[in-house]
Write a structure and sequence with these properties.
Elements (H helix, E strand, L loop, with lengths): L14 H20 L3 E2 L5 E3 H8 L4 H6 L2 E3 L5 E4 L4 H10 L8 E10 L11 E10 L5 H17 L6 E6 L3 H17 L6 H6 L5 H4 L7 H6 L9 H16 L5 E2 L13 E6 L8 E7 L3 H4 L7 E7 H11 L10 E5 L2 H17 L5 E3 L6 H11 L3 E5 L1 H6 L1 E6 L7 E4 L3 H11 L1
Parallel strand pairs: 1-5, 7-8, 12-13, 12-14
Antiparallel strand pairs: 2-4, 3-4, 5-6, 6-11, 7-9, 9-10, 10-11, 14-15, 15-16
The chain binds histidyl-adenosine monophosphate (HAM).
């Protein structure tokens, strides 16, 4: 019989890992709400044309990585490779951008047919956040401070570093583009195949090449910062001074151009050395023309997305959170009558101590085996209801992780006793 396996590059997330995911997801939800962002959900499938128009026809994503297909009606659709395009499409479609500012976030699976390796998958999860209607640079700074706060919450502040650049206005970039083409044409023999292919279609992406042989040539290339229009350089200078005032360290990386076409002005990446080749944990920037390009009114936009798998790897390696699903209290019952009492008691404890995880022994077993289960559950306390306890309407409290003597107390006093214990923790 065929043994089915997950599709290459698409991961099952097993219960033991889910704790870390939930820890990160809940930190993200809380943080986004604290900064005034509201959640938006949009489909996993969109028109193929949406991604071609926004991300750009000659980007790696659109050229090589899309899960594109024709559906039964013959319409060309695609699994979303990122969230910004769908978010902007949905916001325009529902009038969310009409004469108003919006701060939105989303979280969910994205799909790119890349070569899988550590930190790079074909289905991966992004958390993304987009702010519409803010010219900045104050919002640019606030978004970067939000991400810096996230690293502190997750315990990763020493693992990631911020790189910044400004791509300038569309016009300034057109001038720069010509300069770059001229420069690389003079050094045609030194270009690798990828760069030759990009020379006339997307020369800025050559700067971003990961090929070590291209580094020297790229370092010598004309700098985008020398071509910046006045407005973009003022915007960038103000952003840097806001970050300086907030004591957020960053490096200006003139080669940072990003792999999607919709950016202008500020772009940034948070990078780590702990993930090998896939070192970008969080990336984004400004896209002031995108809303208009999709048929909305001119609306400035800025945002970022972070890869949850990459964060999970980092958190597991550097900041293992204490977010296990262990029980706190395990109730052991011996005999039918004790089982009945135990079940009622468990519900009462769940009402009275909502912060505690209460586990009740299920599947009858002798005391010894139930004690083993209690130990395995991770609980700190076993509450034992045996025959003797039932006769005396009492319970025995046994400490499973501490060297303390066991105690017998009246059932009626149990809730207060446990509350006291929880308060003293
Ligand atoms: P991106 O740089 O393509 O930007 O992706 C953002 C992040 O998603 C990356 O930094 C990385 O952490 C994660 N990521 C990307 N591809 C993969 C993959 N194959 N496997 C695992 N993780 C991956 C965007 O997607 C833009 N929409 C970001 C943005 C939002 N810009 C403005 N607003």
């Amino acid at each position: 019989m065929t043994q089915y396996q997950a599709i290459r590059g698409m991961n099952d997330i097993l219960p033991e890992q889910v704790n870390t995911w939930q820890f990160i997801e809940s930190a993200l939800r809380t943080l986004a709400a604290d900064y005034g962002y509201k959640e938006i959900r949009f489909p996993v499938i969109e028109s193929l044309g949406l991604f071609k128009r926004t991300i750009g026809e000659v980007t790696d994503i659109v050229e090589k990585e899309m899960y594109a297909f024709q559906d039964r009606n013959g319409d060309w659709l695609a699994l979303r490779p990122e969230g910004t395009a769908g978010c902007v499409r949905a916001a325009i479609e529902h009038g969310l951008l009409y004469n108003q500012q919006q701060k939105l976030w989303y979280m969910g699976p994205m799909f790119r047919h890349e070569r899988p390796q550590k930190g790079r998958y074909r289905q991966f999860f992004q958390f993304g956040l987009e702010a519409f209607g803010y010219q900045g640079p104050d919002i640019d700074a606030e978004i970067l401070l939000l991400t810096a706060r996230l690293w502190r919450i997750l315990g990763l502040e020493n693992q990631v570093a911020l790189q910044l650049n400004s791509l300038g206005s569309v016009e300034a970039r057109a001038v720069y583009r010509q300069q770059l083409i001229q420069y690389y044409e003079q050094h045609l023999a030194l270009l690798d195949e990828d760069s030759k292919r990009r020379l006339h279609s997307n020369p800025l992406r050559i700067l971003d090449s990961k090929n070590p042989d291209m580094q020297a040539l790229n370092q010598q290339a004309p700098k985008l910062s020398d071509c910046l229009d006045t407005e973009s350089s003022q915007h960038f200078a103000r952003l840097c001074s806001l970050l300086d005032a907030a004591k957020l360290p960053y490096t200006i990386n003139p080669c940072l151009v990003r792999g999607l076409d919709y950016y202008n002005g500020t772009v940034f990446e948070w990078v780590t050395t702990a993930l090998g080749a896939q070192g970008t944990v969080c990336a984004g920037g400004r896209y002031n023309g995108l809303v208009e390009q999709l048929g909305g009114k001119m609306t400035p936009g800025i945002g970022f997305a972070l890869g949850l798998e990459r964060l999970v790897i980092l958190v597991e390696q550097f900041a293992k959170p204490d977010s296990s699903n262990n029980a706190d209290i395990f109730i052991i019952t011996v005999g039918d009558a004790a089982q009945t009492t135990g079940m009622v008691l468990a519900e009462q404890l769940r009402d009275a101590l909502p912060a505690q995880k209460i586990a009740l022994n299920l599947n009858e077993a002798n005391l010894k085996n139930q004690m083993k289960r209690a130990d395995k559950s991770g609980a700190a306390i076993a509450v034992i209801l045996g025959e003797e306890e039932m006769q005396q309407q009492s319970v025995t409290i046994k400490y499973l992780r501490e060297d303390k003597p066991q105690q017998v107390i009246a059932v009626s006093a149990l809730i207060d006793f446990l509350k006291q214990g929880a308060a003293n923790e």
